[in-house]
Amino acid sequence: MSHVTQPIASRIESAVRDIPGWSPLDQLQCLFTLAFSSAHLQGDILELGSWCGRSAIVLGMAAQATGKVKVHCVDLFPEKNDWFRNADGTYSFSVQLNGVTFGAYQDQTVWEEPFLRDIAPLYERWPGTLEAFNDSVRKHNLEGCVIPYRADLESFVRNVAPDFCLSLAFIDGDHGFHAVCKDIETVEPFLLSGGWICFDDAFSSYNGVNDAIRDMVIHSGKYERFQQMTRKLFVAQKL
Ligand SMILES: C[S@@+](CC[C@H](N)C(=O)[O-])C[C@H]1O[C@@H](n2cnc3c(N)ncnc32)[C@H](O)[C@@H]1O
């Protein structure tokens, strides 16, 4: 059956079946629809926080379907030994890139249960999340369209082309308050008028994410068309 007539829900379901991650199918469908229907804005798509590629593949499917060229996927892509256990039993990681140390999940740490259930077993299949991500991209023939960057967001934006702009930014990185504020601040200058931000884990279990969205987005006067979709919140930059 051609891609055009095959229902997107079943295409997404089969595409992400073997990709570890947390985004449920209904939210992936929303993400696809948003990326698909905002393709007329011309800018690229940015994903901050890609893990093994579950949401990146779905964004890539939308980008490919619309002829939009790139989904930039920025992640520190931690390897097994980058993780450490904190005194309270939760987990964080830090990654060394070009002699610089980047810490993640220091403020909002990862609870022990999801770490042991979802994160630790992954390293029995792949040496690192970048290898898992690359496998997902290859399997779905999205090389050239879905591009990983092993970096933090600030390093990534320092190296973009002068005409780099975004129709959609999906923010799903560190869930601490200061980290999310910084991510919004960093992405904002590149967001096209009418362009979208999607926040993962909004108004669910992460106070840092909620407070950052309230301070930087909802009360800023710069955004409109707010819509919460279970755990994801979509907002558009004002026209
Ligand atoms: C919840 S996972 C992303 C899940 C992915 N969007 C999906 O749907 O499968 C969060 C990701 O953010 C990355 N991350 C955390 N802090 C980061 C930071 N400061 N810079 C870049 N990536 C970061 C982690 O490595 C992890 O892969």
| Beta-strand percent range | 15-25%
Distinct small molecules: S-adenosylmethionine
Question: What is the CA-atom radius of gyration, in angstroms?
Answer: 17 Å
- Give a count of the beta strands, DSSP E runs of length 2 or more: 10
Overall pLDDT metric: 95
Pairing-aware structural class of the strands and helices? alpha/beta
Strand order, main sheet: write it out.
6-2-1-7-8-10-9
Q: Write down the overall geometry.
A: globular
Q: How many helix segments?
A: 9
Proportion of residues in helical segments? 25-40%
**Helix-strand string:** HHEHEEEEHHHEHEHEHEE
What is the terminal-to-terminal distance? 39 Å
Major pleated sheet: 7 strands, mixed
Outline the structure in words:
The protein has 9 helices and 10 strands. The protein is of the alpha/beta class and 239 residues long. The strands form 2 sheets. It has a 7-stranded mixed β-sheet, with helices on both faces. Helix 1 crosses helix 2, helix 2 packs parallel to helix 3 and helix 8 runs parallel beside helix 9. The protein is globular. 41% of the residues are buried. The model has no long low-confidence stretch (mean pLDDT 95).
Question: What are the defining features of this structure?
Answer:
single chain; 239 residues; alpha/beta; seven-stranded mixed β-sheet; 9 helices; binds S-adenosylmethionine
